[in-house]
Amino acid sequence: MTKKFFAATLAFIAIPGIAVAHGSMKPQHGGMVQMSGETVIELVSTPKGIDVYLTDEDEPVAAAGYTAKLTQTAGGAKTEAVLTLAGANKLSAAGFKPVKGAKLVVALIDKSGAKIFATFQAN
User: For residue 114, is it within any domain?
Assistant: First the structure.
């Protein structure tokens, strides 16, 4: 076996492990999913507002560890809402109505000051 063949085989075997290293990218609550760093962020639009769920490797991430904000940009205008704790790994912006086609940015800041951002497009 040549060194190139061995290296290519090893790389091919490692790919599946890398692809799922931080859990599923499938929505668990019917929303839109983005990964930022090691955190999977799911944004869900409901009749009551916007919900945001946090996971890492398919395990809930404690939302209490973050301050969070939702920013919507539509037609040149920005609207902001504070995301408040609504469950173990859930943050909510009650009453927030996204505009179709708007850019939605979830900004999370943990207790150490580290920032996480995820961008979505409202549908």
Answer: yes
